[in-house]
Specification:
Blueprint: E1 3-5, H1 11-19, E2 23-26, H2 36-47, E3 55-60, H3 63-68, E4 71-72, E5 77-79, E6 88-89, E7 98-103, H4 105-115, E8 118-120, E9 139-145, E10 163-166, H5 168-176, E11 184-186, H6 199-213, H7 219-234, E12 240-243, H8 248-258, H9 267-278, H10 283-296, H11 306-316, H12 330-356, H13 370-379, E13 381-382, E14 385-386, H14 398-414, H15 421-434, H16 443-449, H17 461-467, H18 475-484, E15 494-498, H19 507-511, H20 514-517, H21 520-527, H22 529-532, E16 538-542, H23 543-549, H24 554-558, H25 582-600, H26 614-617
Domain GmrSD restriction endonucleases N-terminal: 12-274
Organism: Vreelandella arcis
Pfam families: GmrSD_N
Length: 626
């Protein structure tokens, strides 16, 4: 067993441990977020004997852990906006053993602030200052009213003891008021009282203090002060589990499990915290700024999560791509930071390229498939530097864009990055490294590397038939159409639309056709989305074509001279385009598309495609922008 419950300690002993830096906070902990009211409720619960749940600590003994990871002191005086960061406590291999708080930071910080520190928040109806200003954010200390308990029906929190944070001015005003209904005791006094046991506390501490305050006859004050001394200094109410394992990944797993309440924690959240701790500057802001730029740019529009960015950083810097703590040590984070300007630009240019391929945020079915492209562009050198600096120059890099897009479409359609993404990312990186000296993206080497594995990029006829049943609105629909029709202009926006209009296949519309009335089999064919809503009846249309199409019949629309599309462009030359011939149209286009797919992808078994005209065979795979 890696840990065990230790003998409980008093609140005073916990405060002493914080002061002596025997209790520290690991970098994985978030900021202190409790409100002043939550602190008051905590102290009320303690005074009333309510359980405050157990704590969990991590006993840090290992020299490399002390040396490689950052730890922080407890926040001792909180100030909204201007005093929310925990001070860094430098540790090294020779630093004394200490306990890092895994679960209980908010409660222990609250206890410290209440008994030793201050809590500053903005006064109402004043502007936020540009720097810390005690006139606007006056420090407040925690006080307990010894005069009387709260009136329960007047308090929504159902507190019995009247705890309140007061400024020095508020406290002084309460003393001067002759008719004050309160008698405030500053909680800082409790730890200043001398140590006594049993009845000595009453005789040596409580009674003299009440006499000094003029509260000798107040039974509530007598009981309250005696109980306060007892729960803070004598009662062992801090129960804690001590995790002694020095395996950092195990400790993080414990942290995730014990912090499962409230906002869900992911392993990447914790790794992010560790990376932030080793970054010179504000790594969170760097990542957030990049995320917002890619998401809000009209040239991209993709939303990328922090864990994707962390994974990309590990991949591009040649590190182990798995989310393990050892991969976010100081030297690795330092390397990421050193290469960050290039990494950031490369990621941006990669997503710009993906959008030029015609892929939209909705049709990007695997963001992990973007990482190998990003890595290749980052590592591949051209005469003018890394390839990412040139890849979106439409006057250059035609072959590179062509081959990369072909691989990308196939990877999305085959779903090769589903499941164990770390394994494929690592092996893809190794493969790309072996072929960086070649002229262009090593598509054939990739095909050969994964032949006959569960990441095989080759297709068979059955797979092609299933792909052609892809429905309008499915994520892979756009990738498939761009793979089929790569000749689309890279500067245009394309929409996916039905050739024979969708409205023509509604039940009401189909009932109006006499040629379907007595042919149930044909009626079922027309009514099936597998036919009218699938790839053989779909096409990529630019903005003007999409607007002109609307619900017009296919024959009427293609006859419009302003459309600039022909039956040949749609692969239905010499096919009847009347609605009555939709079945023949579907079957003819299905076969034409299948032949074209065979020429665009790598097949698992040799397939001899039917003859196609030379112009189709010479088409170069390019990307279409959306």
């Amino acid at each position: 067993m890696a840990g065990k419950y230790e003998n409980p300690i008093t609140i005073k002993e916990a405060i002493d441990a914080i002061n002596q830096r025997d209790f520290l906070l690991p970098a994985i902990q978030r900021k202190f977020v409790w409100s002043s009211h939550q602190i008051c409720v905590l102290f009320d619960s303690i005074m009333r004997g309510y359980p405050i749940n157990s704590f969990m600590v991590w006993e840090v003994k290992d020299g490399p852990i002390k040396n490689d990871y950052k730890f922080y002191e407890f926040l001792k005086s909180f100030c909204q906006r201007f005093g929310e960061e925990n001070p860094h406590e430098p540790t090294n291999a020779s630093y004394k053993d200490f306990k890092a708080i895994i679960d209980g930071q908010q409660r222990l910080t609250s206890l410290y602030i209440g008994l030793c520190g201050t809590y500053a928040y903005k006064k109402p109806r004043v502007w936020w200052p540009s720097t810390r200003d005690d006139r606007v954010l006056p420090p407040r200390k925690l006080y307990l009213d010894l005069m009387a308990p709260l009136v329960t029906e007047d308090d929504e929190s159902l507190m019995y003891y009247n705890f309140k944070f007061l400024t020095d001015r508020q406290y002084q005003d309460s003393i001067k008021a002759e008719d004050s209904a309160h008698h405030w005791l500053c909680m800082h006094e409790v730890l200043r009282y001398p140590a006594y046991d049993g009845t000595d506390v009453l005789l040596e501490v409580v009674l003299p203090e009440l006499e000094r305050r003029g509260l000798t006859g107040n039974k509530f004050a007598n009981k309250t002060l005696l109980k306060l001394y007892d729960v803070i200094r004598d009662q062992r109410i801090i129960h804690y589990f001590n995790e002694s394992s020095q395996e950092i990944d195990h400790v993080l797993d414990v942290f995730i499990r014990t912090n499962s309440g409230g906002t869900k924690l992911d392993f990447s959240d914790l790794l992010m915290s560790i990376a932030v701790a080793h970054w010179e500057g504000d790594f969170r802001k760097e990542l957030d700024d990049l995320t917002h730029h890619i998401h809000q740019s009209t040239e991209m529009g993709f939303y990328i999560e922090r864990d994707w960015l962390l994974k990309a950083c590990l991949t591009l810097t040649g590190a182990d791509v798995r989310f393990k703590v050892r991969n976010f040590k100081g030297d690795q984070v330092a390397r990421i930071q050193q290469e960050w300007p290039g990494i950031k630009e490369c990621i941006t240019e990669t997503f710009r390229l993906i959008r030029r391929f015609g892929i939209t945020p909705q049709s990007l079915t695997s963001k992990n498939a973007v990482i190998p492209i990003c890595y290749y562009l980052f590592r591949k050198q051209t005469d003018n530097g890394p390839l990412y600096t040139q890849i979106n120059n439409l006057a250059k890099c035609h072959e590179q864009r062509s081959v990369i897009s072909q691989w990308f479409y196939m990877a999305l359609l085959k779903g090769v990055f589903g499941g164990q993404a770390d394994t494929i990312l690592s092996s893809m990186r190794d493969l790309l490294d072996q072929h960086l000296s070649e002229r262009s993206f090593p598509l054939e080497a990739i095909i050969e590397r994964y032949r006959a594995t569960n990441k095989d990029l080759r297709f068979d006829e059955e797979t092609l038939d299933k792909l052609l049943e892809t429905q309008h609105g499915e994520g892979r629909c756009r990738a498939l159409l761009h793979l089929l029709f790569p000749e689309m202009n890279v500067t245009e926006i394309f929409h996916i639309d039905h050739l024979h209009p969708q409205s023509a296949f509604s039940n009401k519309a189909l009932k109006g056709h006499e040629f379907l009335a007595e042919n149930e089999e044909l009626r079922a064919f027309y009514g099936s989305p597998v036919h009218w809503n699938a790839i053989p009846n779909l096409h990529l249309l630019n903005h003007s074509q999409n607007q002109s199409k609307n619900d017009r019949s296919l024959k009427d629309w293609l006859g419009d001279q302003n459309v600039h599309l022909s039956a040949r462009d749609l692969l239905v030359e010499n096919v009847d385009l009347e609605f009555e011939s939709f079945k023949a149209f579907y079957e003819a286009r299905h076969e034409a598309l299948k032949r074209r797919l065979i020429s665009r992808v790598y097949m698992a078994t040799p397939v001899v495609p039917e003859e196609v005209d030379d112009s189709e065979g010479e088409e170069v795979l390019e990307e279409a922008v959306l």
